[in-house]
Amino acid sequence: MQMRKEWRIREAKLEDAPVILTILNQAFSQQGQTPCFGLLDICEWLENTSPQRPFLVAESLQEVVAWCSLQAFYGLPAFDQALEISLYVENQHQGCGLGHDLLRHIEIRAKHFGFTHLIAHIYSSNLNSRHFFEKHQFTLWGKLPNIAQPNPQQAKQDLYILGKEYSHS
Predict the structure, then answer these.
(1) What is the pTM of this model?
(2) How far apart are alpha carbons 143 and 122 in whole angstroms?
(3) How far apart are CA 5 and CA 60, in angstroms?
(4) Helices (H), the chain
(5) Contact at 8 Å (CB) between 161 and 121?
(6) What is residue 33's DSSP assignment?
(7) Distance separating alpha carbons of residues 41 and 51, to the nearest angstrom
(8) What pLDDT, on the 0 to 100 scale, is given for residue 164?
(9) Residue 109 CB contacts under 8 Å (≥ 6 apart), including other chains
(10) What HEC string does 112-137 produce?
(11) What residues contact 104, with CB distance under 8 A and at least 6 apart?
């Protein structure tokens, strides 16, 4: 585990897209998955952000080392207060509290972002991600058995749905 470093969290910019893609592909490769996103996908995500659905990055020494996005959970008005969270940290910066700080940054601003629920979709093989969210009081809300096959050479796996409810009292 690395010593805690200083970083700053800011909104992502279009010019961050290549490093965001690199971090995402690094995570896919680490899990033995075939990367399925390209630079245009990342650019589209960045262009579709809003103040209530931000795409954030964390910088260390002026280099992007992690990112986190909030997206609509289901797309129907009944679910407007539920957001899907995606959070990725560059391998060499994992274990130093960066993911915690990104999540905390979002949780502190829950009322501003307008959500009451955060939902994470996690492949059953991604034990580190599941452990991270469970450590932050996300609980198992569902399991979709054998629904994912992120790599054609591997067996199908389950998708876990972890969630956390927030109150704005």
Answers:
(1) 0.89
(2) 10
(3) 7
(4) 17-30, 39-47, 98-108, 110-113, 127-135
(5) yes
(6) P
(7) 20
(8) 97
(9) none
(10) HHCCCEEEEEEECCCHHHHHHHHHCC
(11) none
| Res 54 pLDDT > 70 | yes
More confident residue, 151 or 63: 63
Contact 76, 125 (CB under 8 A): no
Position 168 scores a pLDDT of 63
Q: Please tell me the distance from the alpha carbon of residue 144 to that of residue 44, in angstroms, as a whole number.
A: 27
Q: Residue-wise over 31-70: b if at least 16 C-beta within 10 A, else e?
A: bebeeeeeeeebeebbeebeeebbbbbbbbeeebbbbbbb
Q: Which residue has the tokens 């067996």?
A: 155
Query: What does the CA dihedral 41, 42, 45, 47 come to, rounded to 10 degrees?
Result: -100
For the CA atoms of 69, 75, 81, 84, what is the dihedral angle to 10 degrees? Answer: -30
Strands 8-11 and 55-60: antiparallel
Q: What angle do CA 128, 114, 83 make, to 5 degrees?
A: 35
pLDDT tens per residue, range 18-40: 999 999 999 888 777 767 789 99
Length of the chain: 169
Residue 2 has pLDDT above 60, yes or no: no
Q: Scan for tokens 């910066």, then name that residue.
A: 93
| Amino acid sitting at position 73 | F
